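User: Structure please.
Assistant: Input sequence and predicted structure:
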Amino acid sequence: MKQIGRVSLPHQVPIDVCTSPEDEVFFITICCIPRGENQLARADVWQVIDETLGIREANGEIRVGMVLAMPDHLHGLFSFPGRKPMSLVIPSFKEWIAKNSHVRWQKNFFDHRLRNGESAAEKANYIRLNPVRAGLVENPSDWPYQRFR
């Protein structure tokens, strides 16, 4: 019987495509509930997001290539060089933000493994232009809720 509604997808990288975990880059989107409500594009919440990512980078759990918070979702280009898999790192990150900033997240997250440098540049451009497309700023560099290497 066909399942109706949302289906959970696995977040593991297939063994046959993973050459080195620290080299794998993922385009990740994490959404809030309800959509349309500004929970993330606020200075106090952004500070918590930025600080926890910095701590997790220092601990070797995650490497942030780029992260940008929109009002109701977050995009990032991340690698997971440590022993802890993405399927544990992202939920732990979401839980910390929820507890410390009262952000309400949708269950799970969307991830897409980038296969080459061109794809990474394309995704980075897409992420940086998100606030422009939404009419929040005219210039991507004017958006305060982002950081990139």
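DSSP finds three helices and five strands in the chain.
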